[in-house]
Amino acid sequence: MLHEKEDLEKAFNKELFVIKNDLYYQQIDLTKNGKKELLRVDISYRPHSTLSGDTYSLRKTNDGRLVGFIADAMGKGLSAAMSAMAITRFLNYFFDELEDEEGFVFDVWIKKTLKFLQKNLFDEEIMSIVLVEYDIQESIIKYASCGMPTFFILSEENEFQAIRSNNPPLSIFTENVRTMSLPSIPIAKMLCYSDGLSESSTSDGKLYASYLKEDFIDSICVKDFRDKVSARIGKGDDDLTYVYIQKLARSKEFETLRIASTYEAIDESLTTISQYLKEHDVDSKTLSQIMLTLSELLLNALEHGSFGVDKAHKNYLIEHNLFDDEMARLEKLHQHKKIKITYGILPSGKRQLFEATISDQGEGFDTMVLKNIVINAEKFNGRGFVIIRKLLDHFYFNKKGNAITIQKFITPFLEL
């Protein structure tokens, strides 16, 4: 039994490895017509059992388009998992190949997918899949939805659209796949999902599809949506996979601090933010969690960002009792570098969300290493982020890796 469990865990980790996500814990900074915005793309992937028939990937083209898919292979267990893994490998391989040649072309990608499935599915097998290309700058969406549930779009003007499947599920008998384009619309939120989400039963005996639109529209962020899903269906009745996209303007109401790269300046900024939270009646536990997180992140910004000290060198300095003297030397050398902190509270009905962004002038880091949080969390030890992840509701980095935005609800989630 022990070996069987280990084999299943290895198989699941293999699934996670094959899946590609070019935006792990990363938000995209956008500027259009002088307007600064943020784009956040979050994926929830919760197999009902170790081997999943659901799969997905999210890629970013060289020219900035987002390309992704969610697939749901017929059946359960090993057969469905093998089909899911095969289509994931194929779609990612040909995405990379198109990018390396003349650039990604959505229609070519879909034609290659159909040819692959025609040669690799059994006669009785079917594959439900939605493939999407999102041109962020132009707000144009191309899609091919094959036997998948309706996906949702909410515009900046609060106009709701439900986009129905425009193709049947794929099989070896499928001759062509129709693609469609949505006209340019200012997207505020978008949700694509597998039927495990909409067809799971709620505590009152209904299908979650009855509440999905309401919860999507009312959610302030992905964590808020996840809380609503969990309250309605718990772990669900099947694999749960969904992509939650949110585009929002930078808040003009937030406070901003620009501090010198010194330990004293960090202490003063923490005092200022703590006072702000107390003035907004944040409870002591939540306040402590936020302040512990900010302290950790500001020290990272100072030592790793402004001072340029990596983890290995820091450990060496500590082991040889050289750390304090070296930090004092580097502080004098780099105190002119600024660390920027913006923070504030976003109201949303009965819940309030604290959000803060810390940015430094350092070189940043490759945020793709954060995939290890998903694949191998127990062995991930990067810059204290595992601990921070437990204290926070969510966080995002910029592409360069020298700025982090954190989110923490300061009011409790009320059961639906």
Automatic annotation (TrEMBL):
- InterPro entries reported for this sequence: Bact_Sigma-Reg, HATPase_C_sf, HATPase_dom, PPM-type-like_dom_sf, PPM-type_phosphatase-like_dom
Q: Quote any Pfam family the record assigns.
A: SpoIIE
Question: Is ATP-binding tagged as a keyword?
Answer: no
Q: Gene3D superfamilies of this UniProt entry?
A: Histidine kinase-like ATPase, C-terminal domain (3.30.565.10), PPM-type phosphatase domain (3.60.40.10)
Q: Name one GO molecular function term.
A: phosphatase activity
Keywords tagged on the record: Hydrolase
UniProt-recorded name of the protein: SpoIIE family protein phosphatase
